[in-house]
Amino acid sequence: MMMEVVVAVEYRIDRRSGVPAFQQIVQQTKQALRLGVLVPGDRLPTAKEVAEVSTVNPNTTLKAYRELEREGLVEPRPGQGTFVRRTLGRPETGTDSPLYGELVAWMSKAAGAGLEQDDVTALVASAMEKQYAAGTTAATGSTGATTTRSSTGE
Q1: Are 147 and 7 in contact (CB under 8 A)?
Q2: 54 with 12: CB under 8 angstroms?
Q3: How far is residue 120's CA from residue 106's CA, in Å, rounded to a whole number?
C-alpha cells in the first residue's frame, strides 16, 4: 500500500488585479514551493477541483500547470494527476525560519500602527525594489494560496 500526500491548494483569484488567472495560479504555486508548503511528490488539485473552488475555467488551471511543467516544477502523470517535481524553497524561506518570525512581528507592529494591507504592500514593494534594484523586481499583489496537507493510503 503506497502513501500519497495530498495537498489541497486553494487558489485565490483576484479578478481586479489585472494579472491573468492562470498567472495567479502559477505565482501562488511558486510561492507555496518557496515556502515549503508544497514539496516534491505532492499532488496538485485537479483542474476540476480548482474550478469548483476558484470559479475559473478548468482550461485556465491546465494552462498554468503546463507553464509550471515547462519550468520543470511539476509533472503530469496520466490517470493520477499533476505532481510536484522540485521545490523552490530554501531553509531560510520556511514559515519556521527566524526571518519569517521577524516578518510576522513587523507585520503586527505595522497593523498596530494603523497601517492597512495596501500600505504594507506598498512599503514592502518599495523596500524590495530598493534592496534588489540590480536584479529582477518582484511581482506585487496578492499571492494568497492557502494549503492543507494530509496523507491518504492507497
Answers
A1: yes
A2: yes
A3: 10
What's the pLDDT tens digit per position in 33-72?
988 889 999 999 999 999 888 889 999 999 999 999 999 9
Q: Cell digits for 96? A: 519556521
Distance between CA atoms of 52 and 77, rounded to whole angstroms? 22
Please give the C-alpha separations between residue 123 and each of 91, 95, 129, in angstroms, as whole numbers. Answer: 25, 21, 10
* Residue 3 grid coordinates: 502513501
Write the burial class of residue 28 (CB in 10 Å: 0-12 exposed, 13-18 middle, 19+ buried). Answer: buried
Cell of 39: 514539496
* Closest alpha carbon to 6 in 35, 33, 46: 46
Say how far apart CA 150 and CA 94 lie, in whole Å: 19
The low-confidence residues of the chain, meaning pLDDT below 50, are 1-2, 136-143, 152-154
Angle at 10 between CA 9 and CA 16, to 5 degrees: 135
The answer to whether the Cα torsion of 80, 86, 88, 92 is positive or negative is: positive
